[in-house]
Amino acid sequence: MTTPEKSDTRARLLDAAADMIAASPGEEISLRAICDAVGVKMPTLYHFFGSKQGLLEAVIERGFDLYLSVKSAHESTGDPIQDMRDGWDAHVAFGLANPGFYTLMYGKVRPGYSPAPQSRPSEILLELARRADAQGRLVVPPEQAAAHILVTNIGVTLRQIVLAQTDRTLSDAVRDGAIAAITGTAAAPGTGRADIHRVLEHVAAHPDTLGLEETAMLSAWLRRLAAADDAVGQ
Question: What pTM was estimated for this model as a whole?
Fold first, then answer.
């Protein structure tokens, strides 16, 4: 059974590690410095975390806890595509505000290794993609759509961290391009399939304009037209 004193010591070690990582993004942390900050010996740290990697994984989990608490503060708009846009912006903002955490969460790459906490925001994004797919708003499978959004979101965030410079114009352009790619609106204007999906995306995002029943009916017709256009192009 874990005593309150032991639990407090573990928490203080984790706090110290998190503070050092936040203060010096991308730099190696000293286990001895962490122990000195808490006033314990190295064996105590190894007792709680097993190794330096174990400590880093605990810090990564804390980073994802913080990230998800920030995301949960944003209410859903009820529109899965708009929620993806808002989620993109929240993701970038978190990375820029917490580069130490973020570079551990997404910037440390080892072949075949993916920290377990990474799956939590990925599942949220996949659920949004599935909702959009159920509304007929995706032209790719929801798994591909979620992966497309996530990898481009990470890339844009890491670039801004590396350059130590916010680039909202770039972030917005890549975000809108990724959304256009998964919703089929990326093709040049005048392309039948793209035009259909642009209208489909617009009415799905603004159901109050026509009313729920009329929106559902128009969406069904547009999906039939898109399917027919696809058949002709094959």
Answer: 0.75
